[in-house]
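Quiz preparation item.
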């Protein structure tokens, strides 16, 4: 059974093409520096948004008619989704996917029943993966939709819920290992609180750390070698999530001695919800050697929630790819389109269009970032900005070869009006960014 009959394999046709079902910029095998675009970008499809989303929102019913849902039996529907998912990825040339346990297999009345469903579906996924060469970027467990998780999973006040979460994660890691998943994600959707009036914050955070210890111990036992990732988000669905942003996650990991076991999965829209730019979160993770993977989407600054739109903002994709290139790439992570088409974009073609938009936007961002780094214009400005730390007084500070007393003594001889700091050159730098972005567009 096929679902995207209107679609041939999506090809690169160049910036001049007006064919909506072709790439203007993404060319999988085009070399950018030493790697191809496909190797740099490692695109992944998010199973939940692309296959399970139906366009419903708190104010309205589903808008999207997804033919793979037209089956009575829930296992038949799950199998149809696999067919549709692999057809879509193959036609788009997306080599990875990510899923939650509940995206691929229906939940049963007991964990045992859910696990059996998941095992059956994992077999089918594996066959499809072998036939197409598509790989699993990461697996995860949904510990936020079922009512038992209303007060959290590992941070629930009810120990039985902690145990259910443990059972679900155990199975999800086993399945991720079985499918050769390169990473495993924890997004703590309800690991937080609605009000501190009813919350033992210390016990909840200690339990979250205890949960991670159990997971690490089990992963070692079964030989799961994938990278564990934590995905920060400040709020939604809870009022406050403990994994608020990269800095909060890192502080948590350091406090509980867990830093070496995790990296971060950074989502653009989560960064903006935390009051940061996407680039800020990527930079913070990168300089702390914690940049693991990216959920590639974008929000709408006029809306205070996680709209999960397909990325189209070229400034953001360029600055994100700048961080990714400086990081030496993302592997074993990738760029996962944790993005959904709008409620009004209800046709199947819109779903294809969303992925093409995202892939083209990141392909262009990659080219701009590469050109920026090649020119070294930003790096030169930054190194001249901090050059006082390369000699004399500055090197004493950097080499930690001074004292407060010595610095006070030296500073006393300064005439304050003679201390000069160079201009921050923000406007000049913004113009440089524009030149690379527009230059890259004009040269196409
Ligand atoms: C929610 C979100 C999740 C995680 C995986 O905002 O981003 O889909 O990526 O659970
Ligand atoms: Co996400």
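Solution:
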């Amino acid at each position: 059974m096929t679902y995207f009959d209107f679609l041939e394999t999506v090809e690169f046709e160049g910036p001049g093409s007006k064919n909506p079902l072709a790439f203007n910029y993404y060319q999988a095998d085009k070399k950018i520096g030493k790697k191809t675009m496909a190797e740099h970008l490692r695109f992944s499809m998010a199973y939940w948004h692309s296959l399970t989303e139906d366009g419903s929102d708190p104010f309205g019913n589903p808008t999207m008619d997804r033919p793979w849902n037209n089956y009575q039996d829930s296992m038949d529907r799950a199998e149809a989704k696999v067919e549709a998912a692999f057809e879509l990825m193959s036609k788009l040339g997306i080599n990875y996917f990510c899923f939650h346990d509940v995206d691929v297999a229906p939940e049963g009345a007991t964990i045992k029943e859910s696990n059996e469903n998941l095992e059956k579906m994992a077999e089918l996924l594996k066959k499809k993966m072998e036939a197409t060469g598509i790989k699993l970027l990461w697996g995860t467990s949904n510990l936020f939709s079922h009512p038992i998780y209303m007060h959290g999973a590992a941070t629930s006040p009810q120990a039985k819920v902690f145990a259910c979460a443990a059972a679900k994660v155990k199975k999800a890691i086993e399945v991720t290992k079985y499918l050769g998943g390169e990473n495993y994600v924890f997004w703590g959707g309800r690991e937080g609180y609605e009000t501190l009036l009813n919350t033992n914050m210390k016990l909840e955070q200690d339990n979250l750390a205890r949960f991670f210890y159990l997971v690490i111990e089990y992963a070692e036992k079964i030989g799961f070698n994938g990278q564990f990732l934590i995905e920060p988000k400040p709020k939604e669905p809870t009022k406050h999530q403990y994994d608020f942003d990269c800095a909060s996650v890192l502080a948590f990991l350091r406090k509980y001695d867990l830093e070496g076991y995790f990296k971060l999965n950074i989502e653009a829209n989560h960064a903006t919800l935390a009051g940061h730019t996407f680039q800020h979160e990527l930079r913070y993770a990168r300089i702390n050697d914690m940049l693991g993977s990216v959920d590639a989407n974008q929000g709408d600054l006029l809306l205070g929630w996680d709209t999960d739109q397909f990325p189209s903002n070229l400034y953001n994709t360029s600055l994100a790819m700048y961080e990714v290139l400086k990081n030496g790439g993302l592997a074993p992570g990738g760029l996962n389109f944790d993005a959904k088409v709008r409620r009004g974009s209800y046709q199947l073609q819109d779903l294809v269009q969303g992925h093409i938009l995202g892939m083209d936007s990141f392909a262009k961002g990659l080219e701009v970032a590469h050109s920026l780094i090649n020119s070294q214009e930003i790096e030169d400005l930054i190194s001249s900005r901090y050059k006082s730390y390369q000699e004399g007084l500055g090197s004493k500070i950097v080499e930690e070869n001074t004292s407060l007393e010595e610095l006070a003594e030296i500073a006393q001889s300064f005439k304050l009006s003679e201390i000069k700091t160079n201009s921050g050159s923000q406007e000049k730098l913004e113009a440089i960014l524009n030149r690379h972005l527009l230059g890259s567009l004009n040269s196409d």
